[in-house]
């Protein structure tokens, strides 16, 4: 398994997909918007077109390898090599024209990310990583911040579409606001994880993410030096099965303790 080669494929395809997302946006948000789990959980024809492109290009460049995507699903088995795609992470931002959304594509081996790319259609920024070889933004190496106190940490998060869960998540944020420098919510998990990698955030956490939300971004953050806690069934650390926590090492312990005390794993 050549992680660098897989990363190069991820970057190549994600670049193409990001350009498609950008060029079809006007049509996608005026003539092709639908909903999924709730009326605020949107999907556009842009999401579907981008995922189709990714699948087509993977079939050409990596024939026979399985794909898991947000819009078209895929094999749930973790064994072997599988590509994980979020065609437009931050679809609500895409809908509104808020320029914080991305195409995310990762290669996972036995359920663990080994290569990934996150490409921003509006800015053109390309985030990438290969396991054991570091993380990069437009070819420049990334490193997490040196923050060492939660009280001075800028923390990112996100919220679910379900109203009851959102309300519980707001309670947790209320607890954290008195313990951190500040909280940010920008609406795209992959880019929040990349922001930790770049030191633009000191930490990020969220409950209820899907694998395609974090597969590429989590690897980028980890390769930049972040401490990573992925969602895990049967986890016994008091944070539940569904929370992802990503932080610069000096903040990780303080944040996980604060989240545990706030009941973040129970929302």
From TrEMBL:
<dbReference type="InterPro" id="IPR020583">
    <property type="entry name" value="Inositol_monoP_metal-BS"/>
</dbReference>
<dbReference type="Pfam" id="PF00459">
    <property type="entry name" value="Inositol_P"/>
</dbReference>
<comment type="similarity">
    <text>Belongs to the inositol monophosphatase superfamily.</text>
</comment>
<dbReference type="GO" id="GO:0016787">
    <property type="term" value="F:hydrolase activity"/>
</dbReference>
<keyword id="KW-0460">Magnesium</keyword>
<keyword id="KW-0378">Hydrolase</keyword>
<dbReference type="InterPro" id="IPR000760">
    <property type="entry name" value="Inositol_monophosphatase-like"/>
</dbReference>
<dbReference type="InterPro" id="IPR033942">
    <property type="entry name" value="IMPase"/>
</dbReference>
<protein>
    <recommendedName>
        <fullName>Inositol-1-monophosphatase</fullName>
        <ecNumber>3.1.3.25</ecNumber>
    </recommendedName>
</protein>
<dbReference type="InterPro" id="IPR020550">
    <property type="entry name" value="Inositol_monophosphatase_CS"/>
</dbReference>
<keyword id="KW-0479">Metal-binding</keyword>
